């Protein structure tokens, strides 16, 4: 429970940081186009609100969540965008309130999940800690789109470790959604944390590796920057290929961002 509580606090802090960016925006700015094609700021916040609500359903009523999955089945490639589109039609103040209330409800629901339980999701079932870790990652990633849109440079925090961890753990998933066989051997990943500490994954004697700033790695695995625009170094051909495939989020392959888009 200690780990879950720490993650829930990180989630609250990540949401609060994004809320501080969007709350002062005039209503007209919520219609600004973000780097995600077809998505405005309202779409971004609407998506976060909807996903928090769906995660709450998974935590509180697994049967109802499964019914939602079955209903969405024929629209598997469109229902997420449809939910964001619907949310974006709501007045910004109401959407902001929906997002705020939804994440509070999610936090309460996850605190009530019995230890050792697995929650249903659109991919493999996950623990409460994994669920809130995914919400931290998505909130940070969509928050990056909002920050880029309004010209805000965010200060990296230790919460990036959760994003980076998901990025490392989803290596094989990224290969599979591209129709490729994952490498048999683990990579070594060595990242420089915002405070200068070292974050590491994988065996020290791995033949292939990825190194660089944690922020850059997180921007890579959430596809918020083109690999060529990041200060990441690889050793080995498979590790180099991974940088072109990395994807920490569920669903089909993402389009990423164009090289030099944020130069």
TrEMBL record:
Coiled coil (UniProt feature): none
Mycothiol-dependent maleylpyruvate isomerase metal-binding domain boundaries: 11-147
Pfam families, sorted: MDMPI_N, Wyosine_form
Domain of life: Bacteria
Domain tRNA wybutosine-synthesis stretches: 183-233
GO molecular function: metal ion binding
Gene3D superfamilies in alphabetical order: dinb family like domain
Identification of the protein by name: Uncharacterized protein (TIGR03084 family)
């Amino acid at each position: 429970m200690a780990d879950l509580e720490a993650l829930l606090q990180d989630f609250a802090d990540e949401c609060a940081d994004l809320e501080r960016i969007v709350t002062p925006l005039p209503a007209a700015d919520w219609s600004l186009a973000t780097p995600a094609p077809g998505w405005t700021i309202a779409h971004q916040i609407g998506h976060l609100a909807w996903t928090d609500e769906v995660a709450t359903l998974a935590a509180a009523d697994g049967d109802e969540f499964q019914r939602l999955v079955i209903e969405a089945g024929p629209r598997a490639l469109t229902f997420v965008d449809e939910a964001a589109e619907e949310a974006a039609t709501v007045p910004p103040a109401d959407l902001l309130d929906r997002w705020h209330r939804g994440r509070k409800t999610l936090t309460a629901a996850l605190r009530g999940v019995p230890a050792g339980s697995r929650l249903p999701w659109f991919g493999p079932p996950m623990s409460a800690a994994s669920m809130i870790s995914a919400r931290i990652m998505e909130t940070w990633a969509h928050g990056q789109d909002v920050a880029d849109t309004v010209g805000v440079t965010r200060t990296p925090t230790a919460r990036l470790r959760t994003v980076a961890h998901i990025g490392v753990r989803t290596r094989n998933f990224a290969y599979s959604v591209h129709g490729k066989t994952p490498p048999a051997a683990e990579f070594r990943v060595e990242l420089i944390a915002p405070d200068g500490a070292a974050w590491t994954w994988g065996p020290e004697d791995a033949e292939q590796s990825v190194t660089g700033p944690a922020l850059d790695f997180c921007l890579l695995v959430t596809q918020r920057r083109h690999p060529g625009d990041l200060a990441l170094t690889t050793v080995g051909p498979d590790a180099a290929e991974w940088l072109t495939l990395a994807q920490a989020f569920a669903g089909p392959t993402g389009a990423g961002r164009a090289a030099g888009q944020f130069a």
